[in-house]
Amino acid sequence: MYELAERLVREGRLSAPEYLALLTRCDDSTLAFLRNEAVRTAQERFGCAIFVRGLIEIGSICRNDCLYCGLRRSNRRAERYRLTSQQILSACEAGYEAGFRTFVLQGGEDPWWNDERLVPLIEEIHRRWPEAALTLSLGEREEASYRRLFEAGAARYLLRHEAADCALYEKLHPAEMSHAGRLNCIESLKRIGYQTGMGMMVGAPGQSPEALVEDILLMERIVPEMIGIGPFLPHHDTPYAGEPAGDLRLTLLLLAILRLRFPRALIPATTALATLHPRGRIEGILSGANVVMPNLSPEQVRRKYAIYDGKASTGAEAAEGLRLLARELETIGYRINFSRGDYQ
Q1: How confident is the model at residue 59, as a pLDDT?
Q2: Which residues of the chain fall below pLDDT 70?
Q3: Phi, psi (5° rounding) for residue 118?
Q4: Predicted pLDDT at 315
């Protein structure tokens, strides 16, 4: 395994069987080597900076019925909300004053947020804070819509592919959601010119090591600018309530592999990692992650954006906990970087 790891570091890629061997047979010393090399690779390009993004969860209303998500439309016990444009602008203003230069608008697939409402909002954010980058994570839309939002001022779009393996995608999603449609959306985003984010859950129900290899190969084909992975975490009001959470070790191994394969990518230490383990965010950074996304959403709605149980949204996961986050980063030799932190 160590020889495979050395070759990944040296050449930047492996074959599918070699990725599979690394994912299934990686010993602790090889994992430590990969994580150290991933950190070195990230620091060579980005220094000891961790980019912060201000996350604004604009609503918990969703038309989809994904089997793993607490916001699925079939969950009658989910607490629904929708921020107003003014609340979103107020969150951006507070974030800007705190130093943030990237805002991430994330929400369920809510048809109410059509182009007629989103375009003026994006234009106003761009007008007020022209030097700030705006990222959207609002699900699947028509290519014409993606283009209008891009032309209004959105620069980045996060749309996790969730599963490169079609059978696994269909296991995780309702019949009306199309694996081909999801990939077409990602390709549309790339074609338009967005910095595009992909990713998947690690340890999703029914996911095999071979499926994870397919995820790596798909990302090799598309080359996303952002890669968001985190452990699967169950929600008690979904069909997968009884499934075990994803494995921390495997998630850290994948983070290291992806950093070595995509040295220029923006890779967050996700909230799911911080939820799974008290040191999850720090361990993610020590596996090559270089982004964190503190929560700028109004405090009264944060618990309502319950995509999985126990979602972390306070302390260092919250915008008001920046000092705590800075202290945590200092303990491992990193510092907060408020800049846009574009793909390099």
Answers
A1: 98
A2: 313-319, 344
A3: -75, -40
A4: 60
Other beta carbons less than 10 A from residue 24's beta carbon: 14
Whole-prediction pTM value? 0.96
